Structures are given as structure tokens and as C-alpha cells.
Here is the input.
Amino acid sequence: MLLVLCVDLDDDLGRKTGFSTPVIGRDPVEEAAVALATADPEDSDVNVIFQGLHIYDDLADRNESVEVAVVTGNDEGDVKANREVGDEVDTVLASVSTAEDVTALVVTDGAQDESVIPIIRSRVPIDGVRRVVVRQAQNLESMYYTIKQVLDDPETRGTVLIPLGILLLIYPLALIGSALDMPGFVLGTTSALLGLYLISRGLGLGERLDDTVERTRRLLYAGRTTLLAYVVAAALFVLGAVSGLDTFDGVQETTPGRVGAPVMLAAFVYGSIQWFAAAALTTSLGQITDEYIAGRFEWRYLNAPFYVISIAFVLHAVSAYFLDVVEMSYLAMALTAGTLLGIVSTLAFAVLESRFAESSDPEQDVEEGTRDFDGA
Here is the structure.
């Protein structure tokens, strides 16, 4: 048996006429069609229902086994509407009593209603789909639905509409540039903005920026000192780079002839290492503070500031030696002192951590013993 299913996805029939759906049978379907046509003659679902009746009558005249029904969804959205249509199809199939295999012919008024075809196909085989469109408005609803989908989808809006809008702005911006005697600058700026946008979309920079902003917002509300430490460290890093470049320029001016690469690097390090060390100390102390507040502090975390001081001391001595500021004896003393500082700090905090763990074990044992006693 062929089941002619007229689909009204947004339930115009129920909302405008009060008919209870699904509507099954030729006479009830005709009553529903007349009621909807009376309530809203311009509704395209009227044509769908009458088309379903036309197909039913044509097949019945040829003595074929056929039934007609109207199934509807709701106006709350595609997912809920599709589920509603699926439930009503189940109701229709349960009401059709026949020993024959049932197949369906789906009648719709456009692409929007055809989104339920996979739902219907999961319940009954589909022999065909008949789209009913008024001849004077051929493909109008499908085009409208496509445009509506583009405008409703945030991803599509960002991908399609923004570049299109920038392209449409080129001509008026060119006119403004001509009036200001800067057409090349205006067009170049517009082209650069479009190019940067497309590159950012391709690399997913927008999502990364959103994630960074969200993490920063959480750090602000959580009262994390790491955020403040990073800001101060960034400022110190910039100052260090400027100081290093100034030292590099000074060495170039005072050194006759061509300056070698090792001396150039040494000059930059000599002028900037103290600033870089201060930035590293700031971030490490900020992270240690946050770990302590969060209850995750461990003694070995305190090694970081001492390592920073050791490395900075060694790099300062090496760069100074390359610039002939210090002698070999000072370099040897700096290397020894930096190495010893790192080793001593590591051993000291390891001992403290082990002692702290040992001292906490008896208390834990007492607590466990107390719990065992109470349980007994």
C-alpha cells in the first residue's frame, strides 16, 4: 500500500484551524484542507494537502491500494519539529491496518519541510518526494529558506557575509580615498584587512583569541597573582630588550672595525640579562604564590627563583668576559658560584621536602588510628 504523507513541518494546520493531527483518511484530510484554505488562503501548505488529495484520487481511480494522511511538527525549531513529525508518522503507520507492505510518497512545499525525509525514511520506505510550489513563485521558498539558513548560522555569517561586506565597501572607500587624495592607501588598507581576516579564519586565530580572553577573565575573577606577574614580566622583558639593544649600539660605536657575531650577542645579553632575570623571577614567584594558595605547594617549587639567579649570574659573567669587562678569574668564580647555588638549593629543598613529609606521617597515622578506634 502507498501512503501519501502531506508534511506540514511548522504545524500551520493545527495552529490556524485547531485540527488535531495527524489527520488520516481522504474525507478528514479534505476537511482539514478546506479549513486551512478558509483560515489562510495564502498558506502554501494548502497546496500540499490538496496535492496529496489529488494523488490519492488519481491512484484510487486506478484501483491501487492507497491512503492519505497529514502529519505536522511544531514551530519551536527544526529538531523538535522533526521529532514531532516522526511521532505522528508512527501513529499513522499504527492506524493503517493492512497485510501489504507500506511505502510512502512524501508531499512537501519546499526544502524546509524536506528536512524531515530522513526521519520518515527511518520508519517507512519512501517511493518518492513531490514538492508543490505555486507556479508564479517557482523556487522562491527554497531560495528564501537557503538565505534564512545562511543568516541564522553564526559560522556561515562569519565566513561569507563579512568578506562580502568588506568587498562591497571597497567602492565607497575608493571614492573617499579619491576625495582625500589617498586612493592607494585606502584600497591597500581594505585589502589588508580582508587578507588578515581570511588568514585568521583559516588558522583559527579567532577561536584561540576567544580562549585566551576567557582564560584571562577566569584568572581575574579567581584572584590569581600569575596574571599580574605575567603583565609585569612582559614590561620587564620589553625594557630588557631595549636595554640590550642600547648596549649593542654602544658596543658598535666604540668598537673599531666589524663586530663579530659572538660579541654582538654578548653585548645584547650583557645589557638585558638583569631585566630578563627580573621578569623570570616575577613569573616564578607568582606561580609559587598561586600554588601555595591553591594548596598544591611543594618545596621543590622554590628551586625556580634560585635557578633563575644562577643562570643570570653565569650569563652576565660570560657576556662580560666576551666584552672584556671582566677577567678570566671572575668568569671562573661566576661559573662556580652559579653551579653551587643551583646544587645547594636543590639539595636544601629536597631535604626540607623529605623532612616535611616525614613529620606529617605520624600525624596522619594518629588520625587513621583515631578513625579506626572510633569505628571499633
Observations:
- DSSP finds 13 helices and five strands in the chain.
- Residues 188 and 194 are 10 Å apart (CA to CA).
